[in-house]
Design goal:
The structure holds two protein chains of two kinds. Chain A is built from 15 helices and eleven strands. By secondary structure, chain A is α/β, with parallel strands linked by helices. In chain A, helix 6 links the parallel strand 4 and strand 5. Chain B is mainly alpha-helical. Chain B is 76% helix and 0% strand. The chains are: A alpha/beta, B mainly alpha. Chains A and B meet through strand 9 and helix 10 of A and helix 3, helix 6 and helix 7 of B.
Amino acid sequence: MLFDRRALLSGAAATLLAPRVARAAAVSDDAGRTIQIPAKVERVFTAGPPAAILLYTFAPELLIGWPNPRRPEECELMAADACSKPQVGRITGRGNTANLEVVLQLKPDLILDVGYISDTYISLANRVQEQTGIPYALLDGKFDAMVSTYRKLGALTGRPDQAEGFARYAEQTMTTIKQRIAKIPESERPRVYYGRGPRGLETGLGGSINMETIEFLGAHNVAAERKGGIVNVSVEQVLAWNPDVIITIDGGFAASVRNDPLWAPIKAVQSGRVHLSPHLPFGWVDFPPSVNRLIGLWWLAKVLYPEQFPEDLKPLTRDFYTQFYHKTLTDAQIESVLSGRG
Amino acid sequence: MTRSAAPGLLIACAILIVGLLVAFTVGRYPIGLADLMSVVAGKLTGREADVPAAVQNVIWQVRGPRILSAALVGGALAVAGTAFQGLFRNPLVSPDILGASSGAALGAVLGIFFSLGVFAIQALAFAGGLIAVAAVYMIGTAVRARDPILVLVLTGVVVGALLGAGVGLVKYLADPYNQLPAMTFWLLGSLSSVAVPDLIPLFGPVAIGTAVLLALRWRMNVMSLPEEEARALGVPTGPLRIAIVAAATLVTSASVATAGVIGWVGLVVPHLARTLVGPDFARLIPAAALLGGGFLLVIDTLARTMAPIEIPLGILTAVVGTPFFIWLLTSVSKTWS
């Protein structure tokens, strides 16, 4: 009797579990790894800021928490309940602040990492997946790949239709802008210097993830003669490059460069083409390199080619923030965002 | 000590002058020798030189301050290293032995972490260096021991390690896209962003500290004797030690605050100076100042000309310094006495 009941119980458990196992899907991520996705993905742990932003735009309710705490001025421009989710750390990149036991305790159905795909990240993903038993998906974080990244995210979370809307938006934006850029002759494409850091002397080399939108727009990165990431350069080098346009994400640098005698002879400064990118709640050009760069593409296109892009940024900003950041901004908020304040 | 120091000092002087000339004429922004001459002549005669404004700008605002600060920082670190090596009677001591660099590094990364402006970052670094050494000195003197110098060195090592952990923690918490590269660049040392306004906070402390060490150079010979012998000669070792530590810390902190952490200069140059002029501090201190200035000038010229991107000074000094130091150890170790 006792034996029978146990058999019955385990049989019942098997039938309860069976549909879940049966419906679980094998999906391959952007690194070509095949991962088993549970039937219902309701909680996703994001490995770093680019993944967190991508997931927030797509389905904020899936987000367990943020890799780093959100500041109040960022939350003002985001859906309040999603923005107030706790800080849970990050598990990839240069810093590894999340404890795997904490990750397990949070019971995610999926770990999502978006970024550069290399052997380092693949082996990290494999290791974490093995240690935790939680499927770990790696998605391509390249700007060009955004459309397919949204579609892949749809497949991973079992929401392909929802993903299609985001993918189309990204695709249309990129196609529209690319078509207009194609008509611009080589000679009219500006030479751009991207200055980060309080003195504006950190810049991205050719092919750097930080320069993707600038390169997408067909502008010439003055530091592109070498390939790589973020490096330090001297003012003397910037003077020698003599860029037509300076793009920065640092408010302090943007404020000081216009009155700095060191930078005064540079063409961009003389012609007033030093531009501070909007950065709330996420940077428009870079920082972190995620979906936030899609609206940044319009801003950057206007900055680089003012004649070819006469659009008013305000409605574009409103649309983007409504659809991607789940927040309808007031006119005052839009103006504040566009001014790069905060 | 009978041989004349004049040739050694002359060589050191010549290296610095040649270094200055070369540094002014090469760089990423192309400036011909004729342009340079006409700009300098224009400045001297008060007439407007017939060159583009950008060329003038590069010479006076970019390259000039940078060259000057390279010479100042190099000289300062070398003098501090020489003074500390004498004080601790140990040839392996460098200017950061009492935690000045670690303290300055922690100050700077905190400044970057809180997104402060450039001057606030440098001020925090300067203060960090001074506070660290003051703490080490207070702890070191509070410990009653037979060998106060040894206690001071050990305290410096321990406090330096703790501050290093602090730097590690701040880097760990920093955001990896923006702040972490900035901290990494800063900690590797660079003069790429030095401008005229940076020269005053650098020059003031370096001038004061170096002047004190120069004034004490005869007494420093006594400090390299054992404690009892020095006292027997009537030298007040306690106040003298405080003066040397304070002066060396002042110049080290100011250098690190401006240029970031640059190792090896304070370790290698004193040895080089010793092979040139001998162990007498009366000649060693000026020789170290000249040679240190010339050395870092050469290094910084390489750093800013070899590639469009800046090569961190801390890396170049290590690459140049390590084989040089090994050569010094194997061939001329006799000169330490």
